[in-house]
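User: Please predict the structure of the protein below. I'd like the answer in structure-token form so I can feed it into my own downstream comparison script.

Assistant: Understood. Taking the following sequence of 181 residues as input:
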Amino acid sequence: MVDVKRVKLPSVGVLHTFVTDAGGKIGVITHRSGHSDLIAFSSAEEGSNVTKVALRLDEDEAHTLAELLGGTRITESLSSLDAIPGLTIDWFPVDYEDRIAGQSLGDLSAHGVVGVTVVAVVRGDSANPAPDESFKVFPGDTLVVAGSPEKVAKAFAFYRTGDPSSKGPAAKGSIDAPSGG
């Protein structure tokens, strides 16, 4: 059985890779937009002089290639998760100018944003699942948020500006650096 490694790419999608018996490496980046990138890496023995191949496929092309190669259970599982009506799972990469940077997550419902859940905060290579409202957010963190598309957009506006109905940047003070990882 082939060992497939799965890596979440915040604000991009998911990368799946595996190493072939011949030592080559194959990867597929499944973008949140529906596009997929098929990537073939050279093996260690071939050195860095060998051309690496990357090919962008739209959703129909990716499904066709999967069918030609025998299908994949991983892609079908991801597709079924995306097919839940009314549910959006989205990533909010925190920048220095965002209002939430250097602040605690707080209680979104107290600011008029109900029906949204912060599933996790990704910091570096680790995830902080189900953080409470006192969890402090820093630039470079990525918030994983679930809810209806409208409510997720409202939460993102709040994280950017402090106002759930606004879309522009907010003025802020200095930001402390996170301690640890």
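That's the full token string. The helical segments are 59-68, 73-82, 149-161.
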